[in-house]
Design a protein that fits this description.
Order of helices and strands of chain B: EEHHHHHHH
Structural class of chain B: mainly alpha
Number of helices of chain B: 7
Number of helices of chain A: 6
Number of domains of chain A: 1
Mean pLDDT of chain B: 83
Strand content of chain A: 25-35%
Distance between the termini of chain B: 80 Å
Oligomer: heterodimer
Distance between the termini of chain A: 21 Å
Low-confidence stretches of chain B: none
Number of strands of chain B: 2
CATH superfamily of chain A: P-loop containing nucleotide triphosphate hydrolases
Largest sheet of chain B: 2 strands, antiparallel
Strand order of the largest sheet of chain B: 1-2
Mean pLDDT of chain A: 88
Number of strands of chain A: 10
Strand order of the largest sheet of chain A: 6-7-8-3-9-10
Order of helices and strands of chain A: EEEHEEHEHHHEHEEE
Largest sheet of chain A: 6 strands, mixed
């Protein structure tokens, strides 16, 4: 596995409110996630999982600290990147609880939307989309509408969409929440394969303990701090 | 004399051209109330000597307004010059009717615009999660807004096409003649496009205010 850093966070703090209404959510979090790694983010509800994910995803501004995505420092006590949307478009792929594909676009149009917004030609974007669909073994559904696909097939299309821009990072928000046990394991195995083969760092928020053994590390938020737990290869069933 | 095509009176009724003699016969022999009353009373061959209009031509060298002013001094007579008659017809009848219909059209267009805007607003609200996801993925506002505007335009064009088909199916069922002209249809198409773009503004405003953070979590 390549040891290039995909995400580096230093002394990250996030507070909400001021003075007597101050709520501390994340305190002095520092960690690094390498490319090719799959990290599960777990914590009780309200502990700050979504807040952390949104800060790494350049959606929510931290109170202070540093965030590096790949070689680029995007935050140091303020946004360094002037256009955080551009950072998300170029560096990050998102996967959600449900597929949230655009209902009036077919599979391939959903996947090519983001690359085309990044000025990639239509032909090139389609070629890449077909490669991804073949990689995810769903190429025969390229011209179907999402309403014609099963839940598992739609989630694969959503994964293809997240990979369409060659991101360095994938942030997944409970990607297996809407799937049954067998499909959940199938999706996490696929994400692990993607992480290894495409050299992408994946952080997945999850409450699904069945998928934890397939991750490389577990990141827990405990008392507003980040704690890592390594997964033993032997734990994987 | 004969049937006229695409010509109606200022009230929208069919129009027929006949000679003055026939017109007078029609008016005084067949439709005059006095004659009708006499016929009802059994009086035959009654005639009416009423004259309602005299058309005169002023010889050159005379001022038409002065002649009209002199005649107005006579009792029980009203005088209108050709220019005044034209003004009465166009200003008082055709122009007022035109303004009336125009105002109705404006009201209908405004109501239609509001309805399209409400439909687009509702459709946009239903798609807020998808819009938040598109913003989260980094898609520029311009791309998302163009989708909303295209959707609204499509709605407007569909409404225009179906409205036109419907109009062509029912226009001859109207009690008065309705003339559908192609230039009017193009003007309406332009109005529909402008109204659709205006209606899409409510959806666009909603897109701009969508929070990408709404895509993550619950």
């Amino acid at each position: 596995m390549s040891k290039q850093s995909a995400i580096k966070v230093k002394n990250l703090i996030k507070n909400f409110g001021k003075e007597e209404n101050l709520v501390k959510v994340i305190e002095n979090a520092s960690f690094e996630i390498q490319k090719g790694e799959v990290v599960a983010l777990i914590a009780p509800s309200g502990a700050g999982k979504t807040t952390l994910l949104m800060m790494i995803g350049c959606v929510l501004e931290p109170t202070s600290g540093e965030i590096w995505l790949g070689e680029e420092m995007v935050y140091k006590d303020k946004w360094i990147a002037k256009d955080t949307r551009r950072i998300r478009r170029e560096k990050i792929g998102f996967i959600f609880q449900a597929h949230y594909l655009i209902p009036f676009l077919n599979v391939i149009e959903n996947i090519t939307l983001l690359p085309q917004a990044n000025k990639v030609s239509e032909a090139e974007a389609k070629k890449k989309a077909m490669e991804l669909l073949e990689y995810l073994e769903i190429a025969d559904k390229a011209y179907n509408m999402s309403s014609q696909l099963s839940g598992g097939q739609n989630q694969r299309v959503a994964i293809a969409r997240a990979l369409a821009n060659n991101p360095e990072i994938i942030l997944a928000d409970e990607p297996t929440a809407a799937l049954d046990g067998e499909r959940s394991v199938s999706v996490i195995k696929m994400l692990k394969k993607i992480a290894r083969e495409q050299n992408v760092a994946i952080i997945t928020v999850t409450h699904d303990e069945r998928i934890l053994p397939y991750c490389d590390r577990i990141m827990k938020i405990q008392n507003r701090s980040i704690v890592f737990h390594e997964i033993d290869e032997d734990e994987v069933v | 004399m004969g049937i006229t095509h695409n010509t109606v009176s200022n009230g929208g009724d069919p129009l027929v051209y006949i000679s003055l003699k026939d017109a007078q016969e029609l008016q005084f022999l067949y439709s005059n109330k006095e004659i009708q009353n006499n016929i009802a009373r059994g009086v035959q061959n009654s005639e009416s000597f009423l004259v309602n209009t005299i058309v005169t031509t002023v010889k050159s060298g005379y001022n038409i307004d002065e002649v009209a002013r002199d005649i107005r001094k006579w009792q029980h007579k009203s005088v209108y010059t050709a220019a005044q008659q034209k003004e009465i017809l166009t200003k008082n009848l055709i122009e007022k009717s035109s303004k009336q219909i125009g105002l109705f059209t404006v009201i209908l267009v405004v109501v239609s615009t509001i309805i399209i805007a409400l439909i687009i607003y509702t459709m946009t609200l239903e798609k807020m999660k998808e819009i938040a996801i598109m913003k989260l993925m980094g898609l520029p506002n311009s791309l998302i807004i163009s989708m909303i505007v295209k959707e609204t335009l499509l709605l407007g064009v569909f409404a225009f096409v179906f409205g036109n088909i419907f109009s062509h199916l029912v226009y001859d069922k109207f009690p008065k003649l309705v003339v559908l002209q192609i230039p009017d249809a193009w003007t309406l198409f332009g109005v529909v496009i402008i109204a659709s773009i205006l209606a899409s503004f409510v959806g666009v405003k909603k897109v701009i205010s969508a929070d990408p953070a709404a895509a993550i979590g619950g």
